[in-house]
Design brief:
Helix content is 37%, strand content 11%. It is α+β, with helices and mostly antiparallel strands and 470 residues long. The chain has one domain (4-459): Amidase signature (AS) enzymes. The model has no long low-confidence stretch (mean pLDDT 96). Residues 25-449 form the Amidase domain.
């Protein structure tokens, strides 16, 4: 048998079900790798070997039970923004250190599916930046070049998966935080439709930007995790339409896609910025690949007005300002967080109301303008992963925020629209740096995205591209 971490998450789950390996054996394998390698990668904010081994033993005891998830017993950790009952939560910040009394809905779904948590993955303070460089943990780095960022805010999750420290992981995405690190680390990241995965028990934040979704090495693994996460929770929250009876996202990864009409943008969205030549090369190569597979690729105009970024900035800062801090906590915040908080505090209720209303209108109009294509293609990022510290600017947080926007001009618009999106590692530089390509689907149409992603994975495989530490 190959090394355990060479197997996909679904292959590991099948091997556990056949009793070829045990969940405890698999868990110890990943715990050992994280102990040896995570100091370089920064994948975990916290490692939990005792809890992991107990979960694995319980998974092994249940292995003959009917109706188990195909990922039962597999190591798939949550993020340090998730509430895991009895385990400390820092939300990437020196200002917070608390122990949740209950699991959030995503962690509950993961536990019900028999996932094993070897820890909580690394995230920047409150999940706000597009890089993962918290004060309380090492910076998360792409395993393909340890001088470069793994992105954020699910940077730890993507780094851990890419380095073979976990089979897959679950991240969250309010402006690109699943897709950005997926691109930096050469893995698959799915941002589901708004309402597909419960954010409960917390209420939805103003603007409903944030969603939670899978990060994995293969499309099928990501789809199988999305099947687990998308089980509805009881409550009055927004829900995406259920799939037809008997269907699943993992089935979509096994079904060939039909011929699609795919739109592509000629210019960046939101901010005027420079798109790296390697990114453009990957964009053109991906367009050609799509055409070679029989899809119709057409240029479309950006449906977003140039002032949309100003509305997003108001909303993002207002969300930060809505967090309650004690005085001693505020003093421990990073300069970027303080800047966003103070900026948000200056936003009036009327201004926030107008902003949310305007963004809703922009989103609806954008969806209508894109309705004549099945899928939209963009690069995931405008630039290659920058070196650690290159974007972070504690002396000038406004410049820090602007640099993040120029790095990630293609992601946040689709948090505004609530559409599903996936980043796929379809291009690599001559020095082995991954460059993700983003595909956006119609609202609630993850099935088409996953089927297309699986077709692209088969046509141009990436699973066996490993960093040197593999």
């Amino acid at each position: 048998m190959a090394n355990l971490h060479d197997l996909s998450a679904l292959e590991q789950g099948a091997a556990i079900a056949r009793r070829e390996i045990t969940s405890l054996e698999l868990t110890n394998h990943y715990l050992d790798r994280a102990e040896r390698l995570d100091v370089e990668v920064g994948g975990f904010a916290l490692r939990t070997p005792n809890e992991a081994r107990l979960q694995a033993e319980n998974a092994d005891a249940d292995v003959d039970r009917q109706g188990l998830s195909p990922l039962h017993g597999v190591v798939i950790p949550p993020k340090d923004l998730n509430a895991w009952a009895g385990v400390q939560c820092r939300v990437g910040s020196a200002a917070f250190h608390f122990i949740p009394q209950a699991d959030d809905h995503v962690v509950s779904r993961m536990k019900e599916a028999g996932f094993v948590f070897t820890g909580k993955t690394n995230t920047p303070e409150l999940g706000l930046p597009a890089y993962t460089e918290p004060e309380i943990a090492p910076a998360a780095r792409t395993p393909f070049d340890l001088s470069r960022t793994a992105g954020g805010s699910s940077g730890g999750a993507a780094a851990a998966v890419a380095a073979g420290l976990a089979a897959a992981a679950v991240g969250s995405d309010g402006g690109g935080s699943i897709r950005i690190p997926a691109s930096c680390c050469g893995v698959v990241g799915i941002k589901p439709s708004r309402g597909r995965v419960s954010n409960g028990p917390s209420g939805e934040s103003v603007g409903e930007l944030g969603v939670q979704g899978p990060i994995a090495r293969t499309v099928a693994d990501a789809a199988a995790i999305l099947d687990v996460l998308s089980v509805p929770s009881v409550g009055g929250e927004l829900r995406a339409p259920a799939l037809a009876r008997g269907n699943s996202f993992v089935q979509a990864a096994q079904n060939p896609t039909q011929r699609l009409r795919i739109g592509r943008f000629a210019t960046p969205i939101i901010v005027e910025c420079t798109v790296d030549a390697e990114v453009l090369q990957g964009y053109e190569a991906t367009s050609a690949l799509l055409e070679s597979l029989g899809h119709d690729v057409v240029d479309i105009a950006s449906p977003f007005p140039k002032d949309v970024f100003s509305y997003f900035e108001i909303l993002w800062s207002s969300l930060t300002a809505a967090i309650e801090f004690e005085d001693e906590q505020f003093a421990q915040l990073r300069p970027l967080t303080m800047w966003l908080y103070e900026k948000g505090q200056s936003v009036t209720g009327a201004q926030l109301s107008r902003t949310v209303s305007r963004l809703r209108t922009i989103a609806r109009e954008a969806i209508v303008q894109m309705s004549d294509v099945d899928v939209v293609l963009t690069p995931t990022l405008a630039q290659l992963p920058p070196t650690i510290g290159a974007i972070r600017n504690d002396e000038d947080p406004a410049a820090d925020f602007q640099a993040q926007c120029e790095f990630t001009p293609f992601t946040s618009p689709f948090n505004m629209t609530g559409q599903p999106a996936v980043s796929l590692p379809l291009h690599w530089t001559s020095t082995g740096i991954p460059v993700g390509m983003q595909f956006i689907g119609r609202p609630f149409d993850e099935v088409t995205l996953i089927s297309l992603a699986a077709q692209l994975e088969q046509a141009q495989p990436w699973r066996d591209r490993h960093p040197a530490m593999w």
